[in-house]
Design brief:
The structure is a single chain. The protein has 557 residues and is of the alpha/beta class. The protein has helices at 28-41, 54-64, 105-112, 175-186, 198-205, 211-222, 226-236, 239-264, 274-293, 298-304, 318-326, 369-383, 394-402, 416-419, 442-449, 466-481, 495-513, 519-537, 543-550; strands at residues 3-5, 8-10, 82-86, 93-101, 113-115, 134-139, 146-155, 166-173, 191-193, 306-311, 344-350, 353-359, 387-393, 427-431, 454-457. The strands form three sheets. The protein has a seven-stranded mixed sheet.
Amino acid sequence: MLQQRAGFIRKPRYWPCRNSIKTPSRNPNHFTRSLVSTLLSGELSGGSPNRQGPCVENLRNRRSSSLSPIRVLNLSQSQRNTIYALATPPGKAGIGIIRISGADVDEVFRSIVKPSGKRETSTIQGLPKPRIAMRCQFVSPVNGEILDDGLVLYFRANASYTCEDTLEFHIHSSRATISAVLKALSTIPGCRLAEPGEFTRRAFEAGRMDLTQVEGLRDLLDAETEQQRKLALRSAVGTTRRRFESIREQIIRNLALVEAIIDFGEGEEIEDGVWEQSKERIYKLRTEIQNHLNDNRRGEILRNGIRLAIFGPPNAGKSSLLNYLAQREAAIVTPLPGTTRDVLELSLDIDGMPVVVADTAGLRKTDDFVERIGVDRAKEAVKTADIRLCVLSLPELLSSTKSRTPFAPSPSPIPQSISDLIAPDTLFLINKSDLLPSTTDTNSFLETILPAQRAWLTSVQQGSGMSEFLSGFSQVLRDKYDAGETGNEPLITTARHRAHLENAVKFLDTFMEMDANEVVFAAEELRYAAQEVGRISGLIDVEEVLDSIFKEFCIGK
């Protein structure tokens, strides 16, 4: 029996079965309205309007006299669990796709979709057949105005990206049409615009993918070169996840051996040598992980872009080289030394490799305050670069060699300000070869001053020797950073992966230092190592990193 107090309905101890109340949808507002309608019709007191209890009759009388109408409040943002967003880039195109995911897609379908021709449905909610496009019109839920003509697709929860019932509206991609349909969706109770990456986050929370796949998908969306695409795709399809799982499973298997020693002890229920066996396996596993850590950050550099610093003396042709690589006038080129005074960066695709090229100021001693700042920035860019390319002028090298004093020590023709930045793997481009007679023996000269360096003789302005330079430079990039074939690709692609593996190695090192008398503590070290590897895939709680990962997605993903 319901009780009435101070004009409000007091809940009974047990609410009636929801199946006994006809609700138009899963929207809580609809449930409230249907419950009140049921109470007033007398269904809860026997199903006959003539057999209403005194409380229900009282409620009806008060409603007709002094009881205020029941107010239905708007849903809060957290209660709007059905999300929608544009899944394709905004702007003019043939098709734009709007994705809707959540419990109220049936309400969305009934409110906005008006099927064209014969309507074929196969679900209780009246939704179209799954994965079959249906021609329809999209109308406004407010006034029934036709917004567009297109297609709608329905995906069941067990076969959708988010593991929720999902709709896709395929509409004409104009700003006006997209805006009108999105505005219509915003008027439906229970629907709200998705946060960046929320579709993928729901897929992750439902177990559709792990964190390495989420990161791979993000990198695949951001991929600009062929090598980035290959690297990201391997993570997105689960290859990286399986490799990390293999490492974690090996740690857990050895943890089981150590815990068996704790429970039973060697020589009784289990055979001798288990402790030595586990330490031998952990040593091999530790070596494998360390090899991944000693990969010179190949995966991280390939993912973020290979940083190439072009440096050298003023007026050697650095900016001309940048323009040649970019195939456009990206940098100002003049005959005056010191034209470039700051670091100019440009992202390029060189033979499928992502390369961030930095053109730097000419390195020399100067009293000009602004140029001195540019020189300092140039030195810093060179020191932090992944690849250093020194550009020198061939005529200046030859003139500095001829100006040597007889019987004096043979100093290097390369200025001291530049030689301090030259590393063993620095590459050299000797420019302006067109300014010397063809009879000049330049090859033997280069072998003398650069005996152990990789160098190319070119003329950037005339284009001579540039094909050989590009071919040789691309080979250097592939040798150092190529994604490799399956099984040889870099495992670590983010700083997060590296940090967790480094922590795991520390726990494994502590385990290796222990003896059989410390078996209890040794088991804990293995458990901590397994947890560190598990955090990479998200098998262990990683709530603190989820927001930073998903916020880098676009809203429709």
